Amino acid sequence: MRFVLLTIGLSISLYSQVRVLGGQIWTPNPVFFIKKSTEVTTQSDSVLRLLSDFLKRNEHVTRIRIECHSDNQKLSVLRSVIIGGNLVDKGISCDRLLPTGFGDMPMTSDSSVVDSTGIVKFFITCFKGKPVSIEAEDGGGLTSPEFCNRSNGVNKLEIEN
User: Do residues 121 and 22 touch, judged by C-beta distance below 8 A?
Assistant: First the structure.
């Protein structure tokens, strides 16, 4: 059974595990990384598969921001690129993804905790090719301008403080 979310017209299954509230895409579980690295844990693959399925079903969502927060901005940017690369590997166009990192950001209790030093959030930034907010698309974070030209060599890069 399906219904259409009237506010922005997304097709979502009544039993979908991915939800959109206020422009933020909520997954049933957080994305986890090996501590202080860019390596996504195996348990996070199912979460990213659900997110890619959501994006495939909702092609009107033309761009999302992948926000990674930690106490190390370089780590945050690299993690967001890794998540983006994982979604590209699952069939999502890199043009629909904006990997963004934030460093030295305070964590909030309502966020998906990744490890003791970071959180990951997903936001819709463009719907049917048009911005959904007057806010800057990058949300004020640092983006990876070469994301669509990325090499696969960063997947297991370890980060030093």
Answer: no
pLDDT of residue 27: 93
| CA pair distance 144, 133, nearest whole angstrom | 21
CA angle, 121 as apex, 4 and 96 as ends, to 5°?
65
**CATH for 45:** 3.30.1330.60
DSSP at 33? B
CA distances for 158 relative to 70, 74, 78, 105, 119, angstroms: 14, 11, 10, 21, 18
Gap between the Cα atoms of 46 and 30, Å rounded = 10
pLDDT bucket at 35, cuts 50 / 70 / 90: confident
Residue 10 lies in a domain: no
Q: Are 138 and 74 in contact (CB under 8 A)?
A: no
The count of structural domains within the chain is: 1
* Average of per-residue pLDDT values in the chain: 79
Residue 159 predicted with pLDDT over 60? no
Give the separation between CA 65 and CA 84, rounded to whole angstroms: 9
Instruction: Report the alpha-carbon distance of residue 35 to residue 37 in Å, rounded.
Output: 5
pLDDT for position 105: 58
Other beta carbons within 10 angstroms of residue 1's beta carbon come to 5
**What amino acid occupies position 100?**
T
